[in-house]
Amino acid sequence: MIELDEQVAAVWRAIITDGDGVWLADRIANFGLIHDSLGKVLSEKARTVRERAFQTILKNRTYHGGILAPGSAPLKSGENGKGIASRWYADTLKKRILAINDIRLRLKFVEGDGMEEVRKNAHRRDAVFFVDPPYTAGGKQAGRRLYTHSELDHEELFKVISEVTGDFLMTYDNTDDVRDLARRYGFDFELVAMQNTHLAKMTELLIGRNLDWARSARKPPGAGGL
Ligand SMILES: C[S@@+](CC[C@H](N)C(=O)[O-])C[C@H]1O[C@@H](n2cnc3c(N)ncnc32)[C@H](O)[C@@H]1O
Fold first, then answer.
1. Fewer CB atoms < 10 Å away: N or C end of the chain?
2. How many CB atoms are located within 10 Å of the residue 194 CB?
């Protein structure tokens, strides 16, 4: 797993690299979330990776749209008017972190540039690549507001991924420019349903060399055919 954003990277580092998943899960489960406690934790300078990880999760769950990028702020009304607590599902977060913690020895986390890692591993026959880039292709604004690292050379990413020996899967927003890029590189694409941060139903694109598996997986039982 590769991530460039140091706030997000702190979470993966704490769980996968440092073995602090249990600490993080307990910190979340035992935290009494009110405006004062939130303000206090977020105003402190994180001295360790795990403290920074906790701050990231707090921000992601209590800030508008889960946005960590500069300029984001805590929720005022939130879901059902519950404000900062409306997306603070402490028990669910704890369970998910402990589940990742259980398999952490099978994972490796790299804080760095994903494109560079794809280039480095492009020759490997035993590697497959999943790429979930910030959605800023075709001048889209959504990704720009969401992520600190939203600038990505999408043309270059398509070129680099077209040269890998193994298979790959990318997810992208469904725009004319992205579909054009996919066509130019001779890639297959397929629309799938997704939920955005406001739980609205939207679609996104899966892009790969051959997505027949995705189409056949979505056929209703008994539909038959190939
Ligand atoms: C659509 S989100 C993917 C989130 C990720 N799949 C997850 O579930 O945590 C895009 C992410 O790409 C990261 N990013 C942007 N440029 C990057 C790069 N060159 N290398 C690695 N990660 C990058 C952003 O910081 C952001 O977290």
1. C
2. 14
